[in-house]
Each structure stands twice: as C-alpha cells, then as structure tokens.
Amino acid sequence: MHHFSYRGGVLHAEDVAVPRIAAEVGTPFYCYSTATLTRHLSVFQKALTGLDATVCFAVKANSNIAVLRTLIGLGAGCDVVSCGELQLALKAGAAPAKIVFSGVGKTEAEIRLALASGVGQINVESEAELDTLSRVAAEMGKTARIALRVNPEVDAGTHDKISTGRKEDKFGIEWSAVPRLYRKAARLPGIDPTSVAVHIGSQITELAPFEAAFKKVRELVLQLRAEGLDIRHLDLGGGLGVPYDHSSNKTPPSPEEYGAMVKRTFAGLDCKFTFEPGRVIVGNAGIMVSEIVSIKESAERRFVIVDAAMNDLVRPAMYGSRHDIIPVQEASSGSLPVDVVGPVCETTDCFAKAYPLPSSLKAGDLVAFLTAGAYGAVMASSYNARALIPEVMVSGDQFAVVRRRPSFEEMVALEQLPPWVE
Ligand SMILES: *Cc1c(COP(=O)(O)O)cnc(C)c1O
Question: How far apart, in Å, do the first and last CA atoms of the chain sit?
C-alpha cells in the first residue's frame, strides 16, 4: 500500500500533483511519500508487538537525510555499513545506542569511529575483524558490544546477486567456526559478545528461508548458553521483499506473517531483538519520474526513450529487475508493447522490454517508475556526465526538494589538472 494514485486522471504523490513537481524541479527526479514511509515503519513495528524489538533502518537502501530523520523521528534506529553512513545516521539524529554497524570489510578507521561514536552494536564478520576490534577497543579503553554475523548456510531463494547466507557467499562467519569464535570473543579484551546476527539476503519473497535460518540461530543460542555464554540479543537482519511487478503473482510475506514467524521461532528464548529492514520500509515509498524524450519506431520494435537512465536507477541494468512504469497522465487509449530505454550509451540501459504502455504517449509526456524508493538514488552515479537527479519529499499537500540537482561547476569541482598538462 502506498500514497501514489491517480486523481482526476493525474498521478498524485499524496495530495500533490506529480506534474506540479516536475514543472518546478525538472525531470528526472525521485519523489518520496512521508505518509507511505510512516505507514511502512509503523506496520513493521506493529508486527513485532510483544517482542522487545528495535527496528534499525538499513541506511544503504535510502540514505537521504530527510528520509532518515523521518524514520528516526518515529523511533527507528539505523543499520550502517560505512563511515559515511554512520555520519549520515548521526547527522540525521539517530541515537548512537540505536545504531548497528554492519559490513563485510570494516577498516580500522571505521572501527575507531564506530567505537568513538558509541554505537550500540558492531556486527563482526570474521575472526580477523574480531582481533582488530578487540585491539582497537582495548587501546581506546572501550568495550564493544558485538554480534558475530553468522552464515547459516541457507539459500534465500532470491536473486543470485543479493543472496548473502549461502556457504559460498562472502558474508558472515562460517557456521562450523561460530561456537569457537564466541568462546574466543568471550576471552578477548574490549569485547562483549552478547548478540548473534544473521542476514541472509534481500528481496526475499518467501518465509521459509528466513524460518530455516532463524531455527538454526535458535539452536545456536541454546548451545552457546549451555556453554555458559550470555546471549541475550538477536539481530535478525533485513531482507523482506516487496512487490515490484504487477504482472508477477509473487507476493512477498507481509510484515505480520514475518513477525508471527519470528515470535513462533524464538518463543521462550527471552531475548531482545534488532531488525534491519531497508527495502520493505522505503521501496514503494518512492517513485522516479521521467519525461519521454522521443519515441522511435523500427520495423521490429517501438522504443520509448526517457530522460532517466541506468545511472539514475541501476537496478534493471544491474539485477535484471523490473519496475512497474505508468503514465503520469492517465490515458484512455489502448496499450502497445514498447521498450522503455534511457539515453546512456549502453545496451543494458533498458528499463523494460515489450512493456505495455498507452499508444497515445508522446514526447514531453511524463512516466513514473514505481517502487523506486529503495536502492534507487543511493546507487545512482553520474555516468555520461549526467548530474545526480534531485530527490523530493512530499507530505500531504506540501513538497520540498531534499537533495537538489548539482550544477555543472559542482560536478567538476573536485577535478584538477596535473602540473604537466597545459
Ligand atoms: C542490505 C542489508 C540490510 C537491508 O536489506 P533489505 O533487503 O533492504 O531489507 C540489512 N542488514 C544488512 C547486514 C544488509 O547488508
């Protein structure tokens, strides 16, 4: 459920007509709905009622400070994976105690910043990282509350490129090594190993892989406790999928179903919980709006060339993923299968193939790419010297630019010629 819908034949973001934003901001742009963000976070939080749980939004899904601040204002913490994300979370007002620092290759500088900032938890991904963390924490006179991020050897059944919990994936600590590393962590200075973390992938559309992983974690907790380790906290990661493609009949489990499964699986374990949802909170709280540059017909195909490209929204090019595309002005004409493509000089700069769009669409018309709030703006680049596109936030009948388009001077400000080039 989201707050982008037609009113009088025109797509609105909450109470704001999308063409009004386009006229003021220029295309392409991202547009986020405050009401949708708020709704998704509260649905997720409600689904966990009865658990002692903190929802730490995965900043990597959408790191716009206005988005972060909105979620933090509603009680969310943050899951961060780099120095930059940690600084963004702090700047957005996150309580350090509600920040989890994850990430597969933390540098010593990142570990220092995490400890100096007093983050609530650091998720350790390897024995080498555990050793470094212990040394740095001891040097700084700090104690790091940690989880070992375990690899439960479960296939999340999602896209190969966003699966993280299989034996061959680079993430987490090998299952067979986990008990030994907890014993080691308990002896190391500067380390307080009270938590277990697991995250098996993203855009997961079934409960079964979560449940399989969580059952293994439950067994692990019982085993570690039997050895005298005081495990009181579980970090169950993110990964819950969202529906992207209305032509597909795959509906991901609801937060309610997910929450009920968590409660069932961990009944009686007496733990605190952290969750790190990203996509399910922001995915369909955002759209990307683009203008049609031209329509090109060949004997074989009809191409709709839009002014957004793979550098603005890379998911289709990177993962072959689909986004629903709709006209901003509702059309009554029948639809024709078209290829929706961007102007970048790459064949992979294609948003959809043989996609049904109204036959009346013409240059100058606007289209919206739905469910673009997660892994959209954060993954954008300026390939082809295209400026990063603005981000706009809507609340009721108001809208504001929350990240503006950079000028050409700003885009080249960091470049300089070496002394030997005239
Ligand atoms: C990416 C990531 C998340 C968020 O995943 P979503 O699929 O967006 O919910 C959470 N935790 C970790 C460790 C991650 O790497």
Answer: 57
Decide whether any atom of ligand 1 lies within 6 Å of the 60 Cβ. Answer: yes
Q: Rounded mean pLDDT of 298-319?
A: 95
Contact 16, 397 (CB under 8 A): yes
Question: Separation of 118 CA from ligand 1 center, angstroms?
Answer: 22
Instruction: Give distance in angstroms: CA of 222 to centre of ligand 1.
Output: 26
Residue 158 Cβ contacting ligand 1 at under 6 Å? no
How many Cβ atoms sit within 10 Å of the Cβ of residue 74?
A: 14
Q: Is 345 a catalytic site residue?
A: yes
Q: Where do the domains of the chain lie?
A: 4-31+284-411, 34-282
Helix, strand, coil share of the chain (percent; to 5): 35, 25, 40
Q: What is the pTM of this model?
A: 0.96
The domain 4-31+284-411 having CATH identifier 3.40.710.10: the answer here is: no
* Rounded distance between C-alpha atoms, residue 105 and residue 124, angstroms: 9
Q: 65-73 and 83-91 helices cross at what angle (nearest 10)?
A: 60
CATH class belonging to 34-282? alpha beta
344 alpha carbon – ligand 1 mean position (Å):
29
What does the alpha-carbon distance between residue 80 and residue 59 come to, in Å, rounded to a whole number? 6
Q: Is the CB of 376 under 6 A from ligand 1?
A: no
Tens digits of per-residue pLDDT, 148-188? Answer: 999 999 988 877 777 777 777 788 999 999 999 999 999 99
